[in-house]
Please model this.
Amino acid sequence: MKAVRLFAQLSAYYLIIAVLVYAALTLFPAARDYLPVGGVEELINQPQQAGANGLTGVQVQEAQQVNSLGDSLFWLSIAIIGAFLTALPVSWTYMSIRHGEEYDQSLISTIIILPLIVTGIVVIVQNSLALAFSLAGIAGAVRFKNSLKSSGDALFILLSVGIGLSAGIGAVELAVVMSVAFNYGFLALWFTEYGEREGMKRYMSDFEVDEGAAPPAVVPPVAAPPAGTPAE
Model:
């Protein structure tokens, strides 16, 4: 079934990523100080510091050993790669569950690329209200003419933004948790067909039938010989 195949694909992907990260940190324990992780701790403790920091209390989690241009580029590269690897399985979920009649290929590209852009933007506007308002004005001047076909598609866009924000503030671990919860949550709703009724408009495709598969070939019927024609 499509649902079982997606579950196996997601599980294998997350397991491979976890093993690779664990092996890298085991071989190079000092690399922990260069990685964009640990921002969740800052977010959890932030309310205690809100009175002192005010509106500029949200800060990008800085690596302990980033003291040069090379270290900064390494930190930013890992953050962007982490956002990409986290958003990639989200696109698999969309491609598997989306109903064929309203399947939007452009949304898949958005799911993958948007977190990378948001990651860079968050690093740019950190602790600067002037840059944040400037960015809001620029974004407001851009006209987006492509509307989403369903409110469910907005969830994928919202998750992509969340992944980019998490990676940008140095909390890639939060992006991973959101990705895992989102994918397996959608998978559970798809497999159980929660909330679906007969005759209703479907957002998700049938989890047992591969709608993207090519239809079986149709053999054209053999025309009967005209009357009076001798048989061979």
